[in-house]
Amino acid sequence: MLAVTHAQISWRNGLAYSEHFQDVYYNSDNGLLESNYVFLQANRLAERWLNYPDQTFTIAETGFGTGLNFLLAAKMWLALAPKAANLHFISAEKYPLNPHDMTTASQQWPELKALSDELISHYPQALQEIKLNLFQGRVQLSLLLGDATCVYRRFRQQAPNSKVDAWFLDGFSPAKNPDMWQASLFQEMALLATPSTSFATFTSASAVRRELIAAGFNAHKQAGFAKKREMLYGHYAGAAHAA
Ligand SMILES: C[S@@+](CC[C@H](N)C(=O)[O-])C[C@H]1O[C@@H](n2cnc3c(N)ncnc32)[C@H](O)[C@@H]1O
Predict the structure, then answer these.
(1) Which of 27, 71, 87, 164 is the most exposed place for a label (fewest CB within 10 A)?
(2) Is the per-residue pLDDT at 152 higher than 90?
(3) Pairing mode, if any, of strands 217-223 and 230-236?
(4) Residue having the nearest C-alpha atom to atom 8 of ligand 1
(5) Which segments of 36-176 does DSSP mark as H helices, in order?
(6) Residue with CA closest to ligand 1 atom 13
């Protein structure tokens, strides 16, 4: 049995609020549209998936939280990707929600109900780090518990040939959660990257941009969602480009 420290959540007008990080899990304007804009669109997933070969596409995330990003990515995958291809969604989570809070969170997204019902029915197994086979076997979810850098180092060491196609860098803001946004995380990302590996994140913090570039990624700014001024997205440009 894994020792799990669950997230301490309070619910504020339907918004999940982290007592530990003193921050909300998703945008109060529209968390669903923000996730779609920041993570799905900036990684250009729709155009990459339309004619995807019969292979596995791997997304790696920092901070599973309520699973909203996962559910949105799975929904788009089921709609666009060829039936013989697979989505492997890996997410690192240091403080997973308990099953009760996961259920409360899922009630905020009626449009995702079919998918979230299936996730929730298997969530206790995910908390045991059992790889879930969901949605007629077309999507696999690996929830890896612990600090993101440690989790992805362990993952790479256990499966040395693994590669990630797209990164979702979530995990509360660098100002509120500086421990996660470390150079060592970006170096792990580089070790799991190929030339087509992309990333996207809601933050445009200059330290994050600098460390991503130092690890070999190009990092562009674009307008952020709603009131957020800017966000970052980019590709792995290779070790030769590392600063
Ligand atoms: C803004 S929430 C993520 C929202 C999530 N992607 C979703 O769709 O609901 C940030 C998450 O990062 C997790 N987290 C914070 N620090 C972490 C770390 N060092 N390693 C892994 N996860 C971390 C938090 O526990 C929280 O669940």
Answers:
(1) 27
(2) yes
(3) antiparallel
(4) 68
(5) 45-50, 68-80, 99-106, 113-126, 148-158
(6) 63
How does DSSP classify residue 39?
I
Residue 241 has pLDDT above 80, yes or no: no
| For range 94-122, the mean pLDDT | 96
pTM for the complete prediction? 0.97
Distance CA(141)–CA(195), nearest Å, equals 24
| Nearest CA owner, ligand 1 atom 5 | 65
* pLDDT tens by residue, 4-59: 899 999 999 888 999 999 999 987 778 899 999 999 999 999 999 999 999 999 99
Question: How many helices and strands (H and E) does the chain possess?
Answer: 8, 11
Alpha-carbon separation of residue 67 from 70, 104, 176, 197 (angstroms): 5, 12, 20, 22
Distance of CA 155 to the CA centre of its chain: 15
Is 164 close to ligand 1, i.e. is its CB under 6 Å away?
no
Which of 23, 24, 25 should be mutated for ligand 1, with most atoms under 8 A from CB?
A: 25
Residue with tokens 């997933």: 45
State the distance from the centre of ligand 1 to the C-alpha of 142, rounded, in angstroms: 15
Q: What is the pLDDT of residue 96?
A: 98
